[in-house]
Amino acid sequence: MSSVNYAAMSYQELRRYFLTHRDDNAAFQAYLARRRERSRPVITTVNDPDFDSKIQASIRQQIAGYQSGNAG
Q1: Which residues, other chains included, contact 60 with Cβ-Cβ below 8 Å and sequence gap of 6+?
Q2: CA distance 42 to 5
């Protein structure tokens, strides 16, 4: 069996590969690791009294990142 380079796959390619090779535990672990990398932090909760200001601050931070070329 040939070795598969999961790191060379895009997120979507890795996802498709795992879904068609469900018995490949290494693919599953690579997919989970990639998913954790893509997760986003929780900014606030609905009941937070500072909800609006936290959302606005996050939006400003993202806009500044896009304008400086550091979007991520």
Answers
A1: none
A2: 31
C-beta of residue 43 within 8 angstroms of C-beta of residue 20: no
The tokens describing 13, both together, are: 């390619």
Question: Could you report the per-residue pLDDT of 1-60, keeping only the tens digit for each?
Answer: 458 999 999 999 999 999 999 999 999 999 999 988 887 888 899 999 999 999 999 999
Give the tokens for residue 27.
């693919």
Question: Which tokens go with 55?
Answer: 């959302």
Tell me the two tokens of residue 65. Answer: 């990142």
Amino acid occupying residue 44 = T
For residue 42, the one-letter residue type is V
> Exposed, middle or buried, 27 (CB in 10 Å: 0-12/13-18/19+)?
buried
